[in-house]
Amino acid sequence: MLRALLLLIAALALPSSAAASEPADPGALADAAVLAHPSIEALRARTDALRHTADAARLWVDPMLVAELSNLPVTRPLLDSHPMAGVQLKLQQRFPAPGEPAAREAAAHARVEASEAAVVEAANALRAEVHARYWDLTSVRQLRGVTADHVVQLDELLGSIRARYEVGHAEQHDLLQLQLRRDRLAEVLVDFDAREAALLAALNGARAEAPDAIVVTPSTSPELTLAGDPASRREALVQHPRLAAHRARADAARSGAAQALIEARPEPTVWLGYRVRAPTITGDAGTNFVTAGVSVPLPFASARRFEAAALAQTEQARASEAAAEGVHRRLSAALEGAEARYARAMRRAEVHRDALLPAARTALDSTLSAYQVDRATFADLIRTEIALLEVERELLLAATDAARAHAEITTLLEAP
User: pLDDT tens, 126-135?
Assistant: First the structure.
């Protein structure tokens, strides 16, 4: 009964039972997360808002229509009571400085492009998080599976040693030590359950799904090959979304500086008026008048204000360019480290799979046979059993480390 229960635990150590569907593709999970996550949607909505603003950036200020009843005497407020009384109708328009509408439009579209780059940057970070949590979850499930399998193997070994003990060919302390080791491994399975729940919740949080939503992971990690060579990967790194986002912010700041310098130019205001008068009691015929005029602001303070704004935007552009350079160096270091981890993990997986694992299994079988005929000690048997467990664990860890490093490299090389 106990062995059947442990075999069930070993089966459940994988993401699903034997009737479950195929393992989920981490790339598809990442793409779905980008499409569904509210944080990405919020950035898209902000970009759409900026785009609507940019569509109207070239529009002029609305003309003004003014109606004025002026110069009426206080004692007799009528149009015919005084020659200066009348109704003034005025149409007024402020004209932008030369090049100002185009500068506003360019700055607005640059802000849209910066916001779009921020969306791609956030999507790339979300994809990286989904991939990392997926392979962490895969590693925990695979380790739990191999641990449960070893508990089953220890139960079989316990049965063999218990039979030898009953006929006086094994010591009681050997039996107790093995029982203790088996119980400790069974306790570790509970820790794997807690770690799996935490990692599954983290993965589903990145996917904007319920914390306990089912995600099927593979029982063995696939062998993934890297695209291109190191030189081409370093060239592709220049297009990383984080770098593109910093460059877009620098472009937006430069466009803002150009807009500020153009807006420092005076904006003339032109008006045309028509004054309606009435014949007065003093004998004035009440001739209507036409007026026209232009006004230009004197840029005493505004020029300095716009100049300061242009300088501030220029410094913002310089800051974004410096940040891009710093990010590029960090990304280059991250790519170098991920490639090194990938190469080492692939080599570890190859050595453990092709050499160390067969040797450990052969050593355990040989030691068990020797122990049954009193040609090996109990300590030898335990050592070989531990060695097999460690080799199997290292093989699983190496395979998932390689997959995790491959996913990190892939997201590092993702272009907008």
Answer: 999 999 999 9
